[in-house]
Amino acid sequence: MIHPSPTARLSLPFPAMQAATGINIDRLRKSFSSSPTGPAAVDSISLTIEPGELFFLLGPSGCGKTTLLRMIAGFIEPTSGKLWFDFAGQRQDVTSLPPERRNTGMVFQSYALWPHMTVEGNVGFGLDVRKIVGIEKKRRVGEALEAVKMSEYASRRPTQLSGGQQQRVALARAIVIRPAVLLLDEPLSNLDAKLRIELRSEIRRLCKLFGMTTVYVTHDQKEALSMADRIAILRDGRVEQVGTPRGLYTKPRTAFAASFLGETNFLAAQLIATDEVKLKSVTVKTSHGEGRPLGSVIVSVRPEAITVSRARGSKGLRGTLTESVYLGDAVQFTVELEGGERLLAAMHNPGTETPAIGQAVELGIAADDVVIVES
Questions:
Q1: Using CA atoms, how far apart are residues 51 and 85, in angstroms rounded to an integer?
Q2: What pLDDT sits at residue 355?
Q3: Paired strand residues for 58
């Protein structure tokens, strides 16, 4: 998780919200079908987003995450269900409230900047709509531009800015109105990899500095893992699993959640005790079997949880090294087990005795890294 460094803080004191806003989503459903029983883009989702939380909606294209975000914003009316904002202990039903009365700020994937306006004009547009003018407007626009480090570009037009600079302006425009809730729809997807990494830290810094409750839509797992306080993984309009980045990565409940949050290996196994799983002819420990019935299971093991060494006759899981790929920060091995199954292993420091292609190898797996998942 990325946290702001002391040197990244503002020189100007931007006024924070007096109290952050919580969001309660109760069985929210949206169907674009003419039939009341037709398929739903969002299918009875219930979520609680805590005040001041940086909450991610993560999932593949078509899973309903943007539709859900737009219902929170008020751009799409739900077919059924309820939506509340909780501010300073006061709950308000905003299910049918128009967007302009929800006090939300939106950052779009396309930035949506006015090309005929200057940077300063774009940032101040929301204040004009709210009838905030004169000295107060100038002060707020200046603070917002300082917050995103774009003060020196105030007189430029969007076409004179890079993609990263345009994204900063879009962020400034969203925060200048001091929204109760900040909504971001894949804001970094149009940027190159290096700039995305830089702006991840900036966005988290701004959200935490201003104490804004933030809902962030993405299909990028690394974005979600590095920035979020909590993540909801969506699949086919439903919530697959909710948790912290570390909790979801190390303890996925389903095979879908495990595979969507990075690479993993799936193996058929037998749960023979609450803390033992049999893989092939080898029994390994697991800390995730308690409460599950004994018998056939599927386990997930992350590549970085597997160590590869030359076979020395131990009783560990064995196979043949078929591929070795140098990735800079790690070496990725492909190991073929007896029966043809292939496992990926990623080692950051494989040592000088790296096995050769075609050589027999032994695999080491830690107990906490063998996770039983639902198919």
A1: 10
A2: 86
A3: 218, 233
3-state helix, strand, coil in the chain (%, to 5): 25, 35, 40
Q: Fill in the amino acid letter for 156.
A: R
Instruction: Give the burial class of 82: count Cβ atoms within 10 A of its Cβ; 0-12 exposed, 13-18 middle, 19 or more buried.
Output: middle
Between CA 41 and CA 66 the distance in angstroms is 10
Check residue 62 and give its pLDDT.
Answer: 92
Confidence of residue 18 (pLDDT cuts 50, 70, 90): low
Domain 6-250 has CATH 3.40.50.300: yes
What are the tokens at 189?
């997807």
How far is it, in rounded angstroms, from Cα 284 to Cα 304? 17
List phi, psi (to 5°) of 319. Answer: -170, -165
Task: Return the closest-CA partner of residue 319 out of 289, 340, 350.
Answer: 340
157 in Cβ contact with 119 (< 8 Å): yes
CB atoms within 10 A of CB 330: 16
Confidence of residue 360 (pLDDT cuts 50, 70, 90): very high
What angle (nearest 5°) sits at the alpha carbon of residue 317, between those of residues 311 and 318?
45
Domain borders along the chain are 6-250, 263-373
Considering the segment(s) 263-373 as one domain, its CATH architecture is Beta Barrel (2.40)
Distances, alpha carbon 66 to alpha carbons 44, 63, 166, in Å: 15, 8, 21
Q: 224-243: b or e for each residue (b if 16 or more CB lie within 10 Å)?
A: bbebbbbbbbbbebebbbbb
Gap between the Cα atoms of 194 and 168, Å rounded: 15
DSSP H or E stretch at residue 278: strand 276-279
> Is 0.70 surpassed by the pTM of this model?
yes
Dist CA 116 CA 158 (whole Å) = 8
Residue 72: which of 208, 216, 264 has the closest Cα?
A: 216
